[in-house]
Amino acid sequence: MKSKRTILCSVLVVCLFGSLLTVAVNLIKKGKGTSISRGDLDRIKIKKQWVSAAEKIAHETKDKEALAVVSAVLQNLVAAAPTSGGVRVLESSREDIPFTVFLPLVSQDTSNKTFKDIVLNRGIFATYQHQNRTIIVKEVEPSSEVWKGLMLLHEGHHAGDLLYEPYDLDDPELFSDHERHVHNFQNRLTSAIGGFTYDRLLRKEVARIRTELKKQGLDGVKRQAGASTNLTIPNRTEYYAELDDALTPALSQFEKDARQTSFWIHAVFMIYEEDRPLHDAEVGKSIFLRMVYQRGGVLK
Ligand SMILES: [Zn+2]
Question: Which of 60, 94, 112, 175 is the most buried (most CB within 10 A)?
Fold first, then answer.
């Protein structure tokens, strides 16, 4: 029996880590006496909001990995602003740990040639660009505090991995293994925040995906005799309004799309955990993510 692939929802919003959209930028360091504009102050303010949202999650969940991301990465983020062909750092960095640049993009940045594509691409919520050691986030549409915190912990985790234990980002296997690890991390935090309401929704999504797979003649994601491949990507649906109850209301369609993609990935991961032994489940999740990222144009 041949496995079927289904069409991926066009509103897939993924972390564009290691993206093909990586931009070459010159980093202009903050000099003494450099003047700071109103727009610069706004970007510094945005950074503080994202960092405090991430810290709140780390402290409330007491998740060791989240606390490590906060202390090893987020406590030395320096806000930056885009310039023509570069990035201007707006703050001084601490000397004791490596710094990471935090670049919030706002609607007006569509006038910037280097970053225009990222601002306009609705498939990108946040990204970490290793070459420039920069976390880019979008403040183009409103997002809730909890979602900003989760996304910054996600990107901060990538930043920390590459800062402290570098690996070859161009190796698709290593890329997807790290992405899987970071999604496992994000899933654990989201479950801790969303509690019973989130877990109940997750069960509903797992059941929906199982029904969809069954219609395609598949028994979940179990390895099936005679199948040419098990790499099936189930469809993502539109936003589950109940996620507002679990995680506080989403503030824009952009946030809803990003939340739903993460939630859908979480449900697929659960199916792998239920259907396969431990190691095999993790391998399956990595392959699934690799396909998602290939479809999203992140990986070749
Ligand atoms: Zn990621």
Answer: 175
